[in-house]
């Protein structure tokens, strides 16, 4: 049997260290935070990170949307399947981030900026609510001098799939385009997450340059609506819009573009370029008592493009992580959500994970 190819999935976006703790209204009031919100930190917020580390039972988690997706993918795939690129500082937060992703089995190749601190996200959980306060830091300084390094570009040339989080359009669009052109020229899969409505609204130029190279486009209903509005698309509903986006001009004609639009507990729509039918996939609502907080799960990578099928029985390694190991203490008393985090596991049995993957 042939050996599994290593690092066939390469992910690019903005790494952050999540500093997550259960807080209270007093903590929210101290930093003028809403219970369920996501903001960029200003001067008045900068002490929250040390406050959480010093005065609360904070968990340190490798964060950033696409880095979460990369960890989720690596959790499901064979070892050494995923490599992640992004920018960090030369500080204790970067060291913690390295340790966190190492525990998750994810390989990272960070560009280190010695003059800018590592990006951090303070996460305050109150009840079912989650308030996030982000200082992007060195994540915002990623540059072409990193991806152009021979040893880094060799990883890109080796990979079969590229996954780019849309937040990186705010940082280094030329790096996105370099991966996009590599994908089209060599018939590799290029996957883009729209990430947020403001990307479609205010970063339209680099987004438009990338879309022709996209084999998969993933977004939720608000991101899709923002894309439609900023591009003057006339589709009357989300289903029709998915079909319209799938049929936008495309560079690599060997692959049909697939568009995946989610909408919470409503059906997910999947449109394929050149096909009239838009498939619907029903979502299973999560009962509130089983919801841990309002953070979204990791962005799914299209199964058709995965280096290995994720719909398989859990490996011994994955089952151990799911059921609770020394590095993954069991939290059976907590509500269980399907949030793939080997550092803060919330699937408390291998049966839970197998049941999730079978649907």
From TrEMBL:
Q: Where is the Carbohydrate kinase PfkB domain?
A: 28-278
* Entry GO MF terms: adenosine kinase activity; ATP binding
User: In the Enzyme Commission scheme, what number(s) does this protein have?
Assistant: 2.7.1.20
Q: Does the keyword ATP-binding apply?
A: yes
Q: Per the record, where are the segments of Polar residues compositional bias?
A: 346-359
Region (Disordered) residue spans: 283-359
Q: Which reaction does it catalyse?
A: adenosine + ATP = AMP + ADP + H(+)
List keywords of the entry alphabetically: ATP-binding, Kinase, Magnesium, Nucleotide-binding, Purine salvage, Transferase
**Pathway of action:** Purine metabolism; AMP biosynthesis via salvage pathway; AMP from adenosine: step 1/1
Indicate whether Secreted appears among the record's keywords.
Answer: no
| Compositionally biased residues, Low complexity | 296-335
Q: Which GO terms describe its cellular component?
A: cytosol; nucleus
EC class name:
transferase
Q: Which InterPro entries match?
A: Adenokinase, PfkB_dom, Ribokinase-like
A Pfam family (short name) is PfkB
Q: Please list the cofactors this protein needs.
A: Mg(2+)
**One example of a Gene Ontology biological process annotation:** purine ribonucleoside salvage
Which residues fall in a coiled-coil region? Answer: none
Q: Which family does it belong to?
A: Belongs to the carbohydrate kinase PfkB family.
So what does this one do?
A: ATP dependent phosphorylation of adenosine and other related nucleoside analogs to monophosphate derivatives.
Name of this protein = Adenosine kinase
Q: Which organism is it from?
A: Verticillium alfalfae (strain VaMs.102 / ATCC MYA-4576 / FGSC 10136) (Verticillium wilt of alfalfa)
